[in-house]
Amino acid sequence: MTALAYTIPIALFLGGLGLAGFLWSLRSGQYDDLDGASWRALDDEPPEPVRSHSSPLVGEVRRGGLQNTNGRGSPHP
Fold this sequence. Notes:
This protein is mainly alpha-helical. Helices cover 43% and strands 8% of the residues. It is built from two helices and two strands, in the order ααββ. The chain has helices spanning 2-27, 36-42, and strands at residues 60-62, 65-67. The chain has a two-stranded antiparallel ribbon with strand order 1-2. β1 and β2 (65-67) form a beta hairpin. It is elongated. The chain starts with a helix and ends in a 10-residue tail after the last strand. The model has no long low-confidence stretch (mean pLDDT 77).
């Protein structure tokens, strides 16, 4: 009987948490465009790459192409 005293409030809390998450998703517009994702999956054009200026390219371009370095100029084994 004491197990019910613990599990019922936990179940009610988790149910309320799920309901709050669902209501948040409704208000934030998660269900506004249900067909868009399916059409994007069928699109033949690749997505545009995300360009980041915070991560520089590690390595050097030499005659053979790109060679990874460990930051000191020597190649990885």
